[in-house]
Amino acid sequence: MDVLVLGGTGLAGKLSARLVEQQVDVVTSIAGRTTAPSRLPGKVRVGGFGGVDGLRTFLRTENVGSVVDATHAFATTMHWHAFQACQAENVPLLRLGRPSWHDLPEAASWTWVADHDEAARVVTGIPGRVVLTVGRQPTAHYLSLGERDLLLRCVDSPAEELPDGWVVRRERGPFTVDHERAALAGASVLVSKDSGGVKPDAKLVVAAESGIRVVMISRGAQPAWDDEVSGVGDAEAWIRARLAGGRRP
């Protein structure tokens, strides 16, 4: 196998599509946490590897030439597993991900928190309509908010029984500004994760123009990546350089 792409993001799908077009032997691996994941090009594997040791075994067994970690910015465990396994097996590793929003001018006006529990505590003190755009998995952290006028946006419905007043809106982005204006109408606070990008996404644009308070969850500690890019084209160039240099022994 030339390339293993650790996926689950739009960037991963775009990269895999380009590699398939170029007839690169690529496999995209996804966690399979959503019931209806987006269709991906080429060969796809679903599920975990079994920790660092399991990933090391996979790299050896499949003779993987290089790995691209294009998982979500908050897939912290996978980041560290990939980093440790690739170091141990001497497999080149590239991190492909969007840059943090932290350094954007708009970010100075947001309330930055360390995790979902802190976000819930902050929101408790803010009256009015709440919009949660953090996905379904952290839902339990917000149940302490109780009965609220609250919109929870996610791809799959949460397993938890939700308090009165909560509405689940199942949809998958990316979203337009007009779409977000409708979704955030009447909101007093928006809770988001630092998914990142070179500019704010549509919901943050709407929050700014509407005076909606933003509570932003920071990313966890990241490995010290040797190679990191934010664009699919740069990732392609990195892969071509590895392929031109020959496979690892």
Folded structure, characterized:
The chain is α/β, with parallel strands linked by helices and 249 residues long. The protein has two domains: 1-97 and 219-244, NAD(P)-binding Rossmann-like Domain (Rossmann fold, 3-Layer(aba) Sandwich), CATH 3.40.50; 100-215, Rossmann fold. The protein is 30% helix and 21% strand. The protein has seven helices and twelve strands. The chain has helices spanning 10-21, 51-61, 76-89, 116-124, 177-183, 202-210, 232-244; strands at residues 3-6, 26-30, 43-46, 66-69, 93-96, 111-113, 129-133, 150-154, 166-170, 187-193, 213-217, 228-229. A six-stranded parallel beta sheet has the order 3-2-1-4-5-12, with helices on both faces. β4, α3 (76-89) and β5 (93-96) form a beta-alpha-beta unit. α1 (10-21) packs across α7 and α2 packs across α3. The protein is elongated. The two termini are 13 Å apart. The mean pLDDT is 92. Pathway: Cofactor biosynthesis; adenosylcobalamin biosynthesis. Its EC number is 1.3.1.54. Pfam families: CbiJ.
Instruction: Give me the side-by-side strand order of the main sheet.
Output: 3-2-1-4-5-12
How big a fraction of the residues is strand?
15-25%
* Topology order in helix (H) and strand (E) letters: EHEEHEHEEHEEEHEHEEH
**Got a strand count?**
12
Distance between the termini: 13 Å
